[in-house]
């Protein structure tokens, strides 16, 4: 696609600066399309001369925020196509990966407010109208996120497998091991395993309380996500899946403190990941109410 052909795909909102515009030169997004900034007043005005790295006053206010955009094909991203495409996991994974790479690129250079996957408008004018309507809220959220990154904290309970020593001790307490039938021996092992697993859950609760207390020293901002299940969790059971918004200057200290929260607790494991773009804290405001003939400002669901 060339020029203004195609739908307008929006990855994020970000400060409208000349430096960020320069950093995005050569960046490719979904479907390999070039990525750029879409300002409030249009590209020609918003790219006027200014001090490198400073904020462009494109909107006439201090809320100089732009959408990060690229072009996508209507046959893949219009309303009808998206309903079908979202069932294609391979396609969805590719879009999600490209979307995330663009967002992470912005995060390496400036504050970014990630938007949801496949936020698409009919054209630039429709996208700009949505930006104008929400730019004050976007600017406030960007101010909150400035100088901070997201860290993920996951707590896992490992599977309890009673040792041979546990089997022998349990059997010795009740008499002759040889006198046990295979069925009774199996039930005894299951009880021992259940007891060990219950102990691990108590340990996990203790670790979770430590994590919360330690993390509160670094940040008041926490989002609790549902625990992961199935292949996402791996061989162990995920019981805590939190995200924290941490000041960049405290990132190393946060990681070390939370990782050490369970060093002396058996049967549990802590994973700390990041820094990431603040997806969990973006919380883009809902679009304003529009008259019926405005068609949701041109946004494709």
From TrEMBL:
The Gene Ontology biological process annotation of the record reads: gas vesicle organization
Keyword Protease included in the entry's annotation: no
Can you list the GO cellular component terms from the UniProt entry?
A: gas vesicle
Keywords, sorted A to Z: Gas vesicle
Subcellular localization(s) per the UniProt record: Gas vesicle
Where do the record's region annotations for Disordered lie?
279-301
Q: What is its main location?
A: other
Concerning its family, UniProt says: Belongs to the gas vesicle GvpF/GvpL family.
- Protein name, as recorded: GvpL/GvpF family gas vesicle protein
The organism's taxonomy opens as: Bacteria, Bacillati, Actinomycetota, Actinomycetes, Kitasatosporales
